[in-house]
Structure formats: C-alpha cells, structure tokens
C-alpha cells in the first residue's frame, strides 16, 4: 500500500489562502491525474478523475474505491482510494516559506500517480478583502 499526498504551492500576491471551493474534503471536487501501471509502467493516455462522492465497489472483498481501472497494456487491475481529513488550505505563510500544503491523501494500489492536473473550482481568500473575493 502506497499513500501519496498531493501537495500544492503557489506564488501568492494578496491572497490569504487557497483551497478547493468546498474545502480540501469537498465531496464534489474532482482531482484529475494520469496513472502509471505499477507492473508494466504504461502511463494512461487520458487523465483520470476521482471525486470523494463517487465510489465504486471493489471487485474482491469488501469496501469501495474511488477508481478501479484495468491497465490497457498488461491487464492488471489497480485502484485509487481517497483518504479525506488530511488536507489543509495553502496559506500565505506556507507560500512565503516556499512550503507546500497537503491537499488530499490518495491510496494507490497497482498504480502510481503521474502528474496531477489542476482544474475545477478553487476558492482564494484575499488578504485585504476577506470573504469578498471570488
Ligand atoms: Zn500495465
């Protein structure tokens, strides 16, 4: 079992914090990334997408994952499970210290993440206009 924490950083100017619209554990926020097969090293052509709200039952055993995908090349099944409750907004303090904020923890089995793609709705809080910035 390999857990990967998605970490973000950004250059802030007049922004106090940055996080997905509904917070790091926003159930409807989609994370996009490519996956690399742990057996043959094949990287998926398209980005795949996981959302906390969107689970699929595991083929074997009990429980659910957020993604089950078979490698097109070697046929190996892999799963990705999101582990909420570990993320923090990226704050100006972290940004100024060139530090990263943890966003979401992912449990990759059979696959490795190969680059996250940022899209979706983000909320940025302005230092000077708290609550008024879109
Ligand atoms: Zn493969």
TrEMBL record:
SUPFAM superfamilies: MAL13P1.257-like. One of its GO terms (molecular function) is zinc ion binding. It comes from the Eukaryota. The keyword Endoplasmic reticulum does not apply. Keywords: Metal-binding, Zinc. InterPro entries: CXXC_Zn-binding_euk. Belongs to the UPF0587 family. This is UPF0587 protein C1orf123 homolog isoform X2. The lineage of its organism: Eukaryota, Viridiplantae, Streptophyta, Embryophyta, Tracheophyta. The gene is LOC105122242.
